[in-house]
Amino acid sequence: MNPVDPKAPYDDSNIFARILRGELPCTKVYEDEWAFAFHDIAPVAEIHVLVVPKGKYVSWDDFSVHAPAEEIAGFVRAVGRIAREMDLVEPGYRIINNIGPNGGQIVPHLHVHLLGGRVMGPMLDRNWQPA
């Protein structure tokens, strides 16, 4: 998959837009008026849930600039609610949002990865060197 330009126009054909429209299957975890959450098909932790806003936003940058405050609050609260409902708060969990090419974003629809069920380890590999 090609890296995403976080300032590109929204593409209605992206995989998460298709999931939101019910065109592609998923294992739903949560839904409200602001957010939709489902299990990742290639999990990297015991719990790996993707949470997407229902609005058409390419990236966190797009969302933070264009979404109304009520929508931002609704989405952020949904992520917290999902973590609580999955009993992740006490043991701890990680939320990841990839933005643009350097951030590793490959789907042009804002989403966060909610990871839990194991020790995540260090945030980044401090020994990493560019190729």
Structure report:
The chain has helices spanning 15-20, 60-66, 69-85, 100-103, and strands at residues 28-31, 35-39, 47-53, 93-96, 112-116. It has one domain: HIT family, subunit A (2-Layer Sandwich). The mean pLDDT is 94. Strand 2 (35-39) and strand 3 form a beta hairpin. With 131 residues, it is an alpha+beta fold. Helix content is 26%, strand content 19%.
What is the topological layout?
Blueprint: H1 15-20, E1 28-31, E2 35-39, E3 47-53, H2 60-66, H3 69-85, E4 93-96, H4 100-103, E5 112-116
Antiparallel strand pairs: 1-2, 2-3, 3-5, 4-5
Descriptive key words:
131 residues, alpha+beta, HIT family, subunit A, 5-stranded antiparallel sheet, 4 helices, 5 strands, 26% helix
The total strand number stands at 5
Sketch the major β-sheet: 5 strands, antiparallel
β-strand percent reads 15-25%
CATH superfamily: HIT-like
Structural class: alpha+beta
Helix content: 25-40%
Cα end-to-end separation: 19 Å
- Globally, the shape reads globular
Q: What is the CATH top level name?
A: Alpha Beta
From the coordinates shown, what is the CATH architecture? Answer: 2-Layer Sandwich
Q: What is the CATH T-level topology?
A: HIT family, subunit A
| Tally of discrete structural domains | 1
Structural Rg: 15 Å
Strand order of the largest sheet: 1-2-3-5-4
Reading the helices and strands in chain order gives HEEEHHEHE
Number of distinct helices? 4
Q: Residue-averaged pLDDT, rounded?
A: 94
Low-confidence stretches: none
Describe the structure in brief.
26% of the residues lie in helices and 19% in strands.
